[in-house]
Structures are given as structure tokens and as C-alpha cells.
Amino acid sequence: MKRATCSEARGFTLIEMLVAITLLAVMAVMGWRGLDAMTRGRERLVDHDQRLDALKLLYGQFQTDCENLARPEALQQSPVELEDGRLLLVRDRREPGLPGAWQVVAYRVENGAVVRAASPPLDNRQGVQAALIALRQPGGGG
After folding, report:
1. Dihedral angle sign, alpha carbons of residues 59, 95, 71, 90
2. For residues 116 and 88, what is the distance between their CA atoms, to the nearest angstrom?
3. Sign of CA dihedral 12, 13, 14, 20
């Protein structure tokens, strides 16, 4: 008896299917790890951008405070004090249509963050002295 032979291929063998599935699984794991790394990198960049924005805001406010320091002659003392990890500034607070005033501003580092505290506008040296005393206290103004 003669056997009938079929010249057409009938499909994939089990070994070929297992190799294909294994390759797809390896590629999926590599893709997932790449996507995970990109997501983590983006989260770090967003956090870094937020901290940079806060620093820019701090530098801008500090620059404004320094540009508007009170004149020592008018204040009859230095407008800058640095003591115990705290920076105290007395700045001119002039607004159009209002009489001139001073404002006492304190910068300090608290729990790793820079904290800015400010007094309300003051129109006399006694008010400035009282604000300086209040802002010198631990946690003063904050």
C-alpha cells in the first residue's frame, strides 16, 4: 500500500508556538519596564519643576524685598539684621496715593523650608521696633 503524502504545510508545531509566545512575553516585559521607567522619570521631573518654581518665587520675592530696603537715615538704624539663622529686613512699602510706610520682613529656615513672615505696613519707628521684636521670637510671624 502506498501512503498519501501531503505537500502542503498544515500549521505551526508546538515548539514553534512556544518559542513565539516566549519571545512575545520577553518583549512585553521589556516594554513594560521601559514604560515604567519613563513614568517614574516624568514624576521626578514634575516634582523637580515644582521645587524650581517655588525657588523662583522665593528669589523674586527676596529680590523685591532687597530692592525696596528702607533708607538707614530715615529709619535711624540698619534695615538689615542677621541673627540666629534669621534674616530681618525693613523695607519701604510705598503705594500710590498712600503715605509712605515700612514693613518688617523675616526669612528663616524651618523644617528644611524657607519661611517668609511680614508685618503689616507701619508708619512709625516704634511700630517697626515692635514688629522686629515680634519677628525675632521663635516662630514669630509664622
Report:
1. negative
2. 10
3. negative
Range list of β-strands (E), the chain: 80-83, 86-92, 102-110, 113-118
Look at residue 63 and give its three-state secondary structure: helix
Q: List the chain domain ranges.
A: 13-67, 69-136
pLDDT in tens, 48-59: 999 999 999 999
Query: Would you state the cell numbers that stand for residue 137, as one nine-digit string?
Result: 521670637
Say which amino acid occupies 5. T
**Of 13 and 93, the one with more pLDDT:** 13
Q: Residue 103: which of 57, 135, 73 has the closest Cα?
A: 135
Burial 34-50 (b: 16+ CB within 10 A, else e): eeeeeeeeeeeeeeeee
> Which residues of 28-134 form beta strands (DSSP E)?
80-83, 86-92, 102-110, 113-118
pTM of the complete model beyond 0.70: no
- Shortest CA distance to 100 belongs to which of 130, 79, 119, 123? 123
